[in-house]
Design goal:
This protein is mostly helical. It has 9 helices and 4 strands, in the order αββααααααααββ.
């Protein structure tokens, strides 16, 4: 894979370097359409960008983590020697050092948007168990809170309406749903682990 161009990553460094903790009442609404595209609604522009950051992490967490490492000039350390030239150019252009200056030149309105977007990204990373279990470079990070009902994130499965989408494979979709909610499906979901740790906790009443 071709390493990303470091000149395009400066804004990403700015976003992640400056994280502003937002108010707890910030609750944008994210609706996902049949194509996986998020539609985000917020009471303020900051709310909306918070949701946008969360949605980007939901859809592209692996890519964002790679861009983050590349933007800091440490991609080769994390992902291999094919990124050495990219890291060299990043440090030659002093992109990590210049990021604070670029952020400082933003208008107050732009800073609020950047801060809200990054806060949404961090909120997803902090609440998604799959991202945590897959994250190899944990350093001294630890889980502060887990198991609280406020962190509950229910997954579900539903059949696309064949009346609106006549080409959908209704029978195959229904078979998949039946398997997911069956005892065998629920057991298979519970048995899935990353590094020996359980990722999903199925709770369909009739499937246990």
């Amino acid at each position: 894979m071709r390493p990303p161009n470091p000149s395009k990553l400066l804004l990403l460094i700015v976003c992640i370097t400056f994280f502003l903790d937002l108010q707890a009442q910030q609750k944008p609404e994210i609706l996902w359409d049949n194509y996986g595209v998020p539609h985000i609604y917020g009471k303020t522009i900051e709310d909306t960008y918070f949701g946008f950051g969360w949605a980007q992490m939901h859809n592209h967490a692996d890519l964002i983590l790679q861009l983050y490492g590349t933007a800091r000039g440490r991609a080769a350390e994390y992902w291999g020697e094919q990124f050495v030239e990219s890291d060299r150019l990043t440090h030659l252009l002093r992109l990590p050092e210049e990021a604070p200056n670029l952020y400082a030149r933003q208008t107050p309105e732009s800073k609020k948007i950047l801060d809200a977007f990054v806060a949404g990204m961090n909120a997803y990373a902090l609440t998604d168990r799959g991202t945590w279990l897959s994250f190899k470079n944990r350093a001294d990070l630890v889980i502060l809170v887990e198991g609280d009902e406020k962190l509950f994130n229910q997954y579900g499965v539903m059949l696309v309406n064949p009346a609106k989408h006549p080409n959908v494979k209704k029978e195959m979709g229904q078979k998949f749903i039946d398997w997911v909610i069956s005892p065998a499906g629920q057991q298979a979901i519970a048995a899935y682990k990353i590094e020996g740790e359980q990722l999903f906790f199925p709770n369909y009443p009739g499937g246990r």
